[in-house]
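step: validate -> pass
step: tokenize input -> pass
step: predict -> running
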Amino acid sequence: MEENKDNINLFINLLEKKYGIWDRNKALFGTTSYGKVASDLSISSSQFTKLLYGTATDGMYERASNNINRLIGRQSVDKANEEKQLLINKLKKAYRKKIFITSIFFLGFGLITSYLLDFNHLDGKKSDYEKHPLENYFYPESSMFFDSPFIGNSAISENCPASGFEGRWVLSEPFKLPLPGMKKPGLYYQAKSADMIIRGTNLFDSFIQKGHAMMGYEYLKSEIWIDTKQEALVPRYFNPLSKEFTESFKQLSFESDPRFKKIATLAAFNVNMFNIHGDSITRNAELTGRIAIDVNKNLAKKYNVDVDYIIKNILGDLIKSSCNTAFNPFCNPNDLSEGSSMITFDCIYTFNEENLGLGKGYPYSKSYLLKDQVFSDYLPCGCDGKVNQD
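step: predict -> pass
step: emit ->
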């Protein structure tokens, strides 16, 4: 009899530990009903009643107690995972804040510099764009009075493979997309160029393997074009059955076809975070600002194109652009080569007011070509990113 009493006390104590205090009047443990507790223990309501009031066998108590202990253990693991995830999110938020505080300065300087580099508003003449607006902040002509938070020469090996990707990457070829937002067809967006400086970083070492994180500071130029004939996308440029852009659209060249006129040139600054996973790379991008310059106001007025509305409400920002994980053909960074090495991201751009029935957005591919590599000498790490000791 005494042994059965011990079984009952242990059973009730475990239930209260898992669910809360036993309320006999309301037939609850904490806020959980008897029926839910029985279900959690994978027993019937009648078996639960026997366990609760002392008419169950020793074997039933042993099995029930073991089940409750497993539930308590699982609860502890789940709680630990939640706390770990909260910590990771907190770290990400802190590092992200740190990055973008720095990027605010880069943005201001970058956009102002790009504005001066590309457009001389005093005489209406355009100057040639020759180098990344922030180049001197990464690769100054003199190291005197210069400091950088990025990977230095002494840490190249321990930050492999990211150190192998450091340098200047450019958009390998333009890509274009139709723009909704007008009552009539014929408006297009064209990404003309991208000039990106990639640097390895240890800002994310708390949750990304050392030597696998990179920051990319990207200066972008794009354009808005109008088809003066305002031809509908369907059927020449878009197949509504397959929901794909046609070959005619892919071969379309705005510059060489006189029916297309450029309404505006856009300048923007983009902050990218890359994570190398051996033979794959993930990319997360944040657009820190976009500005329209050299707007053809007469053309915009003629075709009723509100450039300000297009930028703010249609193009929005690149947070609305999601890219799949890209294949990394340079798992071994020693395989990288200036002028030929390329990484392609297949992306979906979710425009506001999307009108082609694609659901998730407009597909496009963005390919970066390695133009200037910083560390082109042999790097002592292989495809797994581990430093070779011999």
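step: describe -> The mean pLDDT is 80.
step: cleanup -> pass
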